[in-house]
Amino acid sequence: MPKPRIYVDTTIPSMYHSRRTDPKMIEWRATTREWWEVAIHACELVTSPAVLRELARGRSDLVPKRLEMIEDLELLPPHEDVDRAAALYVRHQIMPADLEGDALHLALASYYDCDVLVTWNYHHLANPNKLDRIRKLNEALELFVPRILTPQQLLEEG
Fold first, then answer.
1. What is the count of structural domains for the chain?
2. Phi and psi for 116 in degrees, rounded to 5?
3. What is the full per-residue pLDDT of the chain (158 aa) written as tens digits?
4. Which residues contact 48 (CB under 8 A, 6 or more apart)?
5. Distance of CA 43 to the CA centre of its chain
6. What CATH number should be reported for the domain holding residue 15?
7. β strands within the chain, DSSP E
8. Distances (CA, A) of 57 to 9, 23, 69, 79, 108
9. How far is it, in rounded angstroms, from Cα 151 to Cα 58?
10. Is the CB of residue 76 less than 8 Å from the CB of residue 28?
C-alpha cells in the first residue's frame, strides 16, 4: 500500500519550532512534533517553493531550523495550471487575495494529487465552511480534492 502523500504548509514547521507560551500554542506545538515523528516515516511528505519563501521571510532566529526541517522534502514545482487554479480560488473568494499564499498551497496540493494538505490554518484552509466550495470548484476544474486536516486530526485518525 502506498504511503499517503501529504502537502506540508508553512504552519507546520512554524508551529514545530514555535516558542509561544499560551496553552493552545503549547498543545499545538506538542501535537505537531508528535505527528511529525510519525509522518516523516509513514507518509510521503511534500512541500513547495512557496512554503520555503514564506518561511524565509520570517524574522525569527528560528527561520533556519524551520527551513532545515523541510529541506529534504520533495518540492512540488510551479505549473501554469496551478497558477490558474490559485487565481480561481481567489476570484471565487474561497481564499484570500494572495496568489503566493493559501490559494497557491491549495492549488499545489490539488494539482499534484496530495491525499492531505496538513495545516494549522483554520481561518482559510482547514475551515469546514469552505470545504464544499473547494470541492465544487476543484471538481469543475477536474482537480483532485485533497483532505485539509490538522496534525491533531491526522493523529486521531491513526
1. 1
2. -140, 145
3. 789 999 999 999 999 999 999 999 999 999 999 999 999 999 999 999 999 999 999 889 999 999 999 999 999 999 999 999 999 999 999 998 887 889 999 999 999 999 999 999 988 888 888 999 999 999 999 999 999 999 999 999 98
4. 7, 75, 76, 104, 105, 108
5. 14
6. 3.40.50.1010
7. 5-8, 44-47, 74-75, 116-118, 147-149
8. 14, 26, 16, 23, 20
9. 22
10. no
Give the domain range for residue 150. 5-157
Judge contact between 29 and 18, C-beta under 8 A: yes
C-alpha cell of residue 12:
507546520
Q: Is 77 helix (H, G, I), strand (E, B) or coil?
A: coil
Q: What is the CA radius of gyration of the chain?
A: 15
Coil, strand or helix: which one is 47?
Answer: strand
DSSP state of 72: T
Number of H helices, E strands in the chain: 8, 5
The C-alpha cell at 92 is 471565487
